[in-house]
Amino acid sequence: MKMSNIRTLFGWRARKVPAPTFLGALRKVAGEEAFAMAAFESPDRREILSTAARQMHMSESLLLETLARILELPFSRVVEAPASLPEGVSLLEFRVGGCVPIYERGLLIGLCCVDPSFVAPIRRILGPLPITLARWSDIRVALGEFESREKEKAARHANEHQEACRKLALRALSAMVRQADSHRQASLQINDEQELLQYEFQTEGGLRARGKVRGEAREALLCFLDAAASEVLLLPEEGGSAIDLRMRVEKTSSTRFVVSWQREAPAAENVVSFPSAPLHDASTVLSNSRRKPGSRRSRVLIVDDNPTFGRVLERFFQRQDLDVEHALDGAKALALLRKDSMHVDLVICDVHMPEVNGHEFLKRLRGDARFALLPVVMLTSDTDIELKLQLLKEGADALLTKNEDPRLLYTHVRRLIEKSNLLKAA
Prior knowledge:
Elements (H helix, E strand, L loop, with lengths): L2 H7 L12 H9 L1 H10 L6 H8 L4 H12 L19 H6 L2 E6 L2 E7 L6 H7 L4 E3 L2 H47 L4 E7 L2 E7 L5 E6 L1 H13 L3 E3 L11 E9 L2 E8 L18 H9 L8 E5 L3 H13 L3 E5 L2 H8 L8 E5 L7 H9 L9 E5 L4 H10 L3 E4 L4 H20 L1
Parallel strand pairs: 2-3, 10-11, 10-12, 12-13, 13-14
Antiparallel strand pairs: 1-2, 4-5, 4-9, 5-6, 7-8, 8-9
Helix pairs in contact: 2-3, 2-5, 3-4, 8-9, 8-11, 12-13
């Protein structure tokens, strides 16, 4: 008779011995009494190891190292906070499972836990990752460090997002105010209607001008207007300098705001702005002292397709005792210059304009013998050296970027006008 039949006949079968569990190994090492006391005093099973170690008057690390040998698992005395958590498993799930992920060179290579049976749900998601035993107190600290780091990162991102929204809102609001201000208005109205912000103001001619704000700018502007202080200094336009205005925001209803402003020189610690009073540097005093009473003031022609920028420059130069004309493109500027009644001492021209741009304007201007010696200052936002060299070859007398301090532009203007006057007198 076969051995298997004999075993069946006598009622027993050979069975595979089950692998020892963490609790089974702890019961074996601690003994029934100490294990029972530890289980009774530890409602949280993650704490049962430390409780049992106290019952046995034994080091927790030494006890866990003993259990690791029985379970044939590695043991770690150091648990590092992870840089991230694997996708699909939350921080709470790792806490409940009493474990922390182990990374090496950015790759998930295992799990560090206090009891392998706790991590079964996580391993079903992440796969059969290798397990290393560690004390729950060390795992808890590592998870706490990760959580603190993530909260700091989230707070930093929230602050950065809030600041970005604030800047976006102020840029949008600044553009609105500058538009209205260019029509000599000191207020505008903003309405939020059907996922669209609409602003309006009266033009110099009594017409109603309207504009719209959509998308991210609308959301940012609404948040800013709701929380805006009574007064705020406008931020500069993209690539430009700040205008010296003080703005007041008034909420008249849940969907309506009134924005008003007045001219006021900003404090020295604020952003660079066009000065609200005439500059008293050496060049200004010199030029004013040389002009005799009753003599003609120097006149500057500004050629720029941005009416707001042109208006800001116009007001600035007028405060420096200069007359100003403004043309929106090169063709209009050339037509203005060719008028017999028009006398211009210097031209300030933008490079990038529709129709006739700065390059073409310079070529046509220098091709006319009447304007061969007329000083020209070119303004650009480009930093390309080849572009600047090309402009100088085409006849520009000076090159400046638009975000330069306006006093530097004025110094060039005054110097070139005086140089031109000396050449005419010679």
